[in-house]
Amino acid sequence: AEVVLAVPVAAADTLAALADEPGSLVAVLAPPQLRAVGDWYDDFKQVSDDEVLEALRDRAQPACGKARSSPA
Which helix (H) or strand (E) covers residue 57, if one does? Predict the structure, then answer.
């Protein structure tokens, strides 16, 4: 197994600091001076924990064909 960190935007200095860590690191944009991640989005509204959990459950795929049970 491999760990892959993929992000749409990240600070260049953060990417450099993580370069020696195991796994792969992918960033679409790495501006030299990143003030705020939200500056790079048209819509960066906050979402609740419940919304995130619902989205993850809706998109969950069984690993290796085995069914997963969702938490109650």
Answer: helix 49-59
Q: Which of 40, 33, 36 is nearest to 12 (CA)?
A: 33
Q: Among candidates 10, 14, 18, which has minimal Cα distance to 40?
A: 10
Burial grade of 11 (CB within 10 A; 0-12, 13-18, 19 or more): middle
Question: Could you report the per-residue pLDDT of 28-67, keeping only the tens digit for each?
Answer: 999 988 999 899 999 999 999 999 999 989 887 666 555 5
Residues in the chain: 72
* pLDDT for residue 71 is more than 60: no
pTM here? Answer: 0.57
β-pair type (24-29, 4-9): parallel
- Identify the helix (H) or strand (E) that includes residue 50: helix 49-59
